[in-house]
Amino acid sequence: MRSLLPFVADLPLVDHHCHGVVTRDVTRADFEAMLTEADAPSPLGTSLFDSLIGLAVRERCAPVLDLPQHADADVYLERRAELGAAEVARRFLRATGTTDFLLDGGFLPDALTTTPEFAGLAGTRAHDVVRLEQVAEAVIHGTTARGFAGAFADELGKRAETAVGLKSIAAYRVGLELAGSPPSASEVEAAAGRWLAAGGGRLADEVLHRQLVFTGLDLGLPVQFHVGYGDADVDLRRCDPLLLTGLLRATRGGGVPILLLHNYPFHRQAAYLAQVFEHVFVDAGLITHNAGFRAPAVLAELLEIAPFGKVLFSTDAFGLAELYHLGTALFRQGLSDFVRAALDAGAMSEKDAVRLCALVGHENAKRIYRLEHV
Amino acid sequence: MRSLLPFVADLPLVDHHCHGVVTRDVTRADFEAMLTEADAPSPLGTSLFDSLIGLAVRERCAPVLDLPQHADADVYLERRAELGAAEVARRFLRATGTTDFLLDGGFLPDALTTTPEFAGLAGTRAHDVVRLEQVAEAVIHGTTARGFAGAFADELGKRAETAVGLKSIAAYRVGLELAGSPPSASEVEAAAGRWLAAGGGRLADEVLHRQLVFTGLDLGLPVQFHVGYGDADVDLRRCDPLLLTGLLRATRGGGVPILLLHNYPFHRQAAYLAQVFEHVFVDAGLITHNAGFRAPAVLAELLEIAPFGKVLFSTDAFGLAELYHLGTALFRQGLSDFVRAALDAGAMSEKDAVRLCALVGHENAKRIYRLEHV
Amino acid sequence: MRSLLPFVADLPLVDHHCHGVVTRDVTRADFEAMLTEADAPSPLGTSLFDSLIGLAVRERCAPVLDLPQHADADVYLERRAELGAAEVARRFLRATGTTDFLLDGGFLPDALTTTPEFAGLAGTRAHDVVRLEQVAEAVIHGTTARGFAGAFADELGKRAETAVGLKSIAAYRVGLELAGSPPSASEVEAAAGRWLAAGGGRLADEVLHRQLVFTGLDLGLPVQFHVGYGDADVDLRRCDPLLLTGLLRATRGGGVPILLLHNYPFHRQAAYLAQVFEHVFVDAGLITHNAGFRAPAVLAELLEIAPFGKVLFSTDAFGLAELYHLGTALFRQGLSDFVRAALDAGAMSEKDAVRLCALVGHENAKRIYRLEHV
């Protein structure tokens, strides 16, 4: 491993997209189920520790639990159980060097820490990102087709008062091919009517996902989109960020930031959008920990054409405390390798390198989410 | 060149997808026509030896024929002719260190060795993979629209008795956007009727390709799919493995392995499918020899998120004996470079490295194709 | 930075696709607006100097203006203004080592040098590439729906007399999914009628873009296509070169070269087309300067399967004199890094390396555009 450059090792980070952590103890099966985007190890394959992320856990997480690097998976899990999940969470979250976590609490909230609990474990600040679809799915049962748009806007406005950003998971439900203009009131009413007639539940309607996004943009809060890589529930082909081109073109004058999350394996496409659309920002969350020691290679591809003022850091960590640590440590490794390669090539000065790292590590996020004002 | 790690140099390999070898002597024109996926050198371009694979032949194959590295193409072909094609085949096949070859004998069988002939030349085991479309095209002329499904299933059942796997070339004929459920009996009958009315011949009908796949899955044998890179006959855009998402989702509970072959340049997409669908496996055949000294870069991308229990080795070599040797040698190079980079970075232990190589080199294939039972 | 191999440093280059240069003085805002594919720096982001291309300007261009490497952007622009745009253009163009520039003069011609002016500044040869759409948009107003096809062919024939190639920007207007056969006379007439009825102006009609291409191919001049990466005006998803597969299949027997420009991030797809279609050629223009010190990584990906007889050099530089210099210097860096890596790996001989560089640097372009005959 190339050692980290000192100014990368010490860089304060804003993790602009992650989720709560699990504080109950987990079995090996639970652990493997949360480790990657697979639901569980395959009976046709082998342990999910047989992967770059599995190796990264044993390399980079074991020492945080006082074990030698590359400790066996069973030894690792035994030690984890011995320390208890809360202590494990505390150790990993505090090892990150993250000053602000932005938490999307909209997925499986009952199994995870709340934002205040998370902040307590991490010993630092945590902020809310509101998942648009969760609000809509809560609102739909107490309203009518005609009333849905207003009820959603009201509830979102309330939720947004204490939030720093919003998030759309349209990618998971209908894909990213959202039309480039807000739906009309009658289109929304008709779609809400269909949804109600189907009994509410899981939202999956292009008109409504789009309506949520445009309502969110009206509030002026940054809107995050799940893009690319995810679990088997996703149709990855419909998660290419280029499918958002029409919507991005339609919203570029509005001054509200749109953040494309994850993006792998379409991260070069996302970087293109970040270069040409003034309100588009990108990260490489989720893949950073999944790709283990290959994370630096992916990050370098993202940085080819994305302006440094448009790239953010996130882990997209969910559930396992290890993922916050890995996502952060591997991001630092990637950033350090990237600027060191540039420094070695004479392609930037050290002053440039420090500036680039500060932008990507925390300055862009603080500016976009107005974290000084929180 | 970084030297191979000893445990990679000596690794027994299972080549889970290749074809027969040509044992007639070949002219320079023949050789170039079989070297890459181009039909022939272009009158507008230059020799196809002007490519990474051409350079790899002169670097890595020349010594096997007792020539110095980088011997000129004409000198190389002269020496090849002098030794005779059978001796050349023997030398290259035996240089691979492959213990088991799985041969798809369904393309141009008259020009190539049979499986037993191949095994004799290679001095090792060779197994049959049955090409679904070849069986269908043989069966259609002796049956009726209504009888087709049964006749195909019967014939495939017979052929499968001595085979270890099946293969679909739907990608070449209709692309990979196959629907996620088996066609109904009446749909199959109607499609077979259209095919018969058109005189049989080359199958290219989404309903029937899908029917072949589902019939194959019912037999419980692993089903290989051509994915991605191929010759000019392919519409590469329709060969993105993500197009199979619906079919993969529909078949994930069945316990029958599905193997995505080649995959370039969609290998990261394929790796995603291998991570999230328990029955999906991937390789980087065909591109490994075509990319010459860049093969390690491609293999490293495949291994970012594909679990090591889901990655197999194949050459997809066809015709030219050199391609078995190149595909194998460059795979070893890529695997060695990958684990050496991880070892250098402290990202895995040597024990992990040995395990990873054994899984990818032969253990996954032996498990999936049940090669111990053959 | 790895130093350039001597035979790469001295390699004469043919820049087979670029545009005129701006000779008026530019403000910082103008400069940033022309630096990348963004229209302007984002009020939500930071300066566009915060990017790999921005760093490359300060690293590689500053010394040409007698400044130290990594000079601050403001210092750089001050020095630029002091020298004057014409002197700046002269310095950068003459620093390239390019013997022949092929200029597409069809975009914003009034703001840029003409081809003879450009040749004077560069002190070398410059040739015309005719933009098909510009000719059509000039012709439409003086003709009828029925007369359009003939009027276009006549005018193009005249313009082509002194040109070495043609260019289609269908990608920018309707995307690359052009059908695989020339439109019929009546289809062209109907489309021209619709265009006239809409008042002429900006052409965006699949039938007519296709008609322009087929008319161009009839003239026997190489036809360039914008592919992939471009500004916010492009719908990048419709610029995948694989969308051209049908048209390429239909035109492969004709012996007229088709050149896929830029291609990023679809450069591996483009390389596939260059391998399997005898009349298809590729480059990595535009991304070479945008990716700064990452340009070598992109070029290496292009060269994985593209035969060396099918790869050309271009900058796609437009407006800013720096871009010709950067595109050229970073191409040399990429080529040098690529062959040095191959030499270090023993994957080619030095004789091979010299040949590869000559082909890609100028020989392929001279052969395809018949530059000896100009």
TrEMBL record, chains A, B, C:
GO molecular function: hydrolase activity
Residues covered by the Amidohydrolase-related domain: 218-371
Recorded superkingdom: Bacteria
Protein name (Swiss-Prot/TrEMBL): Amidohydrolase-related domain-containing protein
